[in-house]
Amino acid sequence: MREKKRYLLVRIDPPFPDPDPKELYFAVVESVTSLFGDAEAARMMPVVITCGSGYAMIRCIRGYEEKARIAIVTLTSVGERRIALHAVATSGTLLALRRKISMLSLISFEVVASLRFRDREYAARRYPCQKVDLHEKGIKSQELLFLTQDDLEES
Amino acid sequence: MDTDACIHPYPAGNSSVRRMAIEAGALGFSGIVVPGEMPGVYQGVHIIPAVLIRENDIRKVTGQIRKHGASGILIFVDAGDTGFNRAVLAQTGVHGIRSIHRIPKNAFDHISARLAHENGIAVEIDLYPLIHERGVSRQRVLNRYNDLMKLHSRFQFPLILSSNACSVLDLRSPEEIRLLCSLFGMNKDDTNQALRTISTLLSPLESVMVVP
Questions:
Q1: Is there a domain that residue B38 lies in?
Q2: Which of A97, A126, B108, B207 is most buried as measured by Cβ atoms within 10 A of its Cβ?
């Protein structure tokens, strides 16, 4: 018998670069398994449908969407990269979520190739609402900082 | 006013306090408690200063409380063994006791729970280990919080919820916190109340005094 599904639209933070969908799938499954166990993960059947432009769509069996959302809250990394997922909407059809994405404002940013902050060299992404993400340039340590325009002006 | 009861911005973490305020506001918080920060409002989010006391000796704790008590900021003390917790909960000027998940199993018992209720001292539920730990260590934390909820249902002491976020990536929305809290039997009403406890701690309800 064909089981009913539920689709979750999640926002990826930080939005860029997009995580690899396969790696994201493994991270979601690991979160579900570590929190609820193999048996519940098998019943939930979480799958990453799409991933890109700062959003991902995750499918699960109907009735397990709340547990899927809890597991997503506990997801902290995809591969080596620190990440946070925030559920935006849940729906019974993919079409409804695609409509929802089209209504959401696209995440825009401006790339700054080189920026100095506290005597270190960073590459920066400026988002609207004063947000600035700094990524340290270097081979050994690549520190990631989340600041605001005010912080940069003050330093 | 939904408030995250403790976050650790730059330099302890990788996000500035302003960025934390922006992200917390976007997630649905009206306030964040930041140890060692100046009070203020940034993009509509209240920044509430606090002091975290991490001492094992009650005399040192008393000294710290005396030092910061008059400054009108929130004072949180890290929990310890049974005797220490009872002594801390009997102190005036303490707003909350934290790190309950790190102490021995029965170190926060029914006497501590009653003291917390009588003195209006909040008990912190730290969400960081629930999000970041895996396996046995997370099970232990869940077990500890289950026990805490049993005591809470009996003694009704105030609870506070904190992400202890060191990064904007560690912040969770009030709705996500409600979901997480359901893991250890905390219902929606209790979670909502716990998210608003900070405002109660800042302006506690007192009986009406007749001034002649």
A1: yes
A2: B108
